[in-house]
């Protein structure tokens, strides 16, 4: 009688077929928190000063700082798994997917780094959780503040467009090519 293969639970590390549990946890947590940041800043632009907007604005630095830590962890974990994760195939589409993911990584790192540099160089103390992380600078470090002002918001909105493209590509993979791309990251909890 043919034996049915017992279901294996999801691996912790990535494999060439699937992203592992830690990569998935980081991907979806970071995605949700980044969308929270965009929602708050979008409401601020659309509605101006409103109680609901103040609530979102009040969480922005805290969530952003937590995001920075999660993103550093994600980069380290991706590097540790780099030889053992799902590939994107050869050809132009494969190259575009690799470059698209690299751009998302670059943006994920640069957006909070720019804001944190600006906070470090500022004449105000940085204490998002109620205790001081960066002391005030007197005088402020101009290049850090200017760099943060130039990069943080602008790159933020460009990245939102990049994320929209990323989600659109996932929809195309699911709707047209049906090649199991979403399953590699979402799955059903089983390998
Ligand atoms: C990945 C994490 C983050 C994302 C996606 C994000 C995104 C954004 C966006 C889209 C804006 C709106 C810019 C505009 O008004 O046009 C903004 C503003 C702002 N963010 Fe963040 N942010 C993040 C992390 C942080 C961190 C860590 C800090 C604090 C150190 C911070 C502090 C600020 C401040 C003070 C503003 C208002 C001033 C400005 O427009 O630059 N953000 N952020
Ligand atoms: C609802 C929104 C999202 C969906 C449905 C989604 C879906 C996916 C899927 C299916 C993959 C696997 C693609 C493959 O390997 O071929 C993936 C990978 C990836 N996604 Fe997303 N994603 C979302 C949001 C985001 C956000 C907000 C970011 C960060 C800015 C992001 C960054 C990445 C990166 C860098 C990869 C490459 C794998 C890795 O190194 O972690 N995604 N995403």
UniProtKB/TrEMBL annotation:
InterPro entries xref list: Cyt_b561_bac/Ni-Hgenase, Cytochrome_b561_oxidase, Di-haem_cyt_TM
Main location: membrane
Transmembrane segments: 25-43, 63-80, 92-117, 155-175
GO cellular component, one term: plasma membrane
Any one biological process term the GO annotation gives: respiratory electron transport chain
Keywords annotated in UniProt: Cell membrane, Electron transport, Heme, Iron, Membrane, Metal-binding, Transmembrane, Transmembrane helix, Transport
Domain Cytochrome b561 bacterial/Ni-hydrogenase: from-to ranges: 19-186
Listed GO MF terms: electron transfer activity; heme binding; metal ion binding
Compartment(s): Cell membrane
Mode of membrane association: Multi-pass membrane protein
UniProt cross-references to Pfam families, sorted A to Z: Ni_hydr_CYTB
Cofactor: heme b
Protein family per UniProt: Belongs to the cytochrome b561 family.
Protein name: Cytochrome b
Lineage, uppermost ranks: Bacteria, Pseudomonadati, Pseudomonadota, Alphaproteobacteria, Rhodobacterales
């Amino acid at each position: 009688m043919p034996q049915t293969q017992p279901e294996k639970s999801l691996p912790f590390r990535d494999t060439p077929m699937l992203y592992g549990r830690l990569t998935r946890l980081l991907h979806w947590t970071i995605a949700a928190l980044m969308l929270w940041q965009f929602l708050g800043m979008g409401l601020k632009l659309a509605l101006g000063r409103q109680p609901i907007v103040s609530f979102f604005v009040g969480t922005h630095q805290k969530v952003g700082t937590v995001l920075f830590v999660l993103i550093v962890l994600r980069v380290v974990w991706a590097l540790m798994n780099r030889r053992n994760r799902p590939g994107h195939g050869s050809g132009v589409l494969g190259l575009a997917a690799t470059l698209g993911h690299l751009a998302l990584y670059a943006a994920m790192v640069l957006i909070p780094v720019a804001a944190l540099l600006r906070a470090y160089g500022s004449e105000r103390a940085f204490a998002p959780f109620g205790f001081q992380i960066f002391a005030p600078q007197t005088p402020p470090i101009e290049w850090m503040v200017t760099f943060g002002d130039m990069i943080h918001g602008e790159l933020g909105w460009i990245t939102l467009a990049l994320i929209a493209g990323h989600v659109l590509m996932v929809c195309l993979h699911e709707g047209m090519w049906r090649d199991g791309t979403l399953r590699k990251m979402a799955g059903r909890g089983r390998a």
